[in-house]
Backbone:
């Protein structure tokens, strides 16, 4: 994945991570949690007891692309 700049002058490193989960039913969320923990343990050695996944709504006010601002609300985007 190539992460390009947002046009907002926010520097990114090669350790940049994006995790987005939206629009899932309760059953799909449960499956996702289970599979995420399984794969993180298998591929990264992360214990399932160390994984917390809060899912939140996905409105304009739920996004900040850095610098402590909600760019969709401020008109920057």
Residues:
């Amino acid at each position: 994945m190539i992460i390009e700049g947002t046009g907002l002058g926010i520097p990114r490193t090669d350790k940049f991570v994006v995790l987005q989960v939206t629009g899932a039913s309760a059953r799909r969320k449960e499956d996702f949690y289970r599979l995420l923990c399984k794969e993180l343990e298998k591929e990264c050695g992360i214990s399932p007891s160390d994984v917390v996944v809060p899912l939140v709504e996905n409105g304009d006010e739920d996004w900040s692309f850095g610098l402590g601002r909600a760019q969709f609300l401020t008109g920057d985007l």
Summary: The chain has a mean pLDDT of 82.
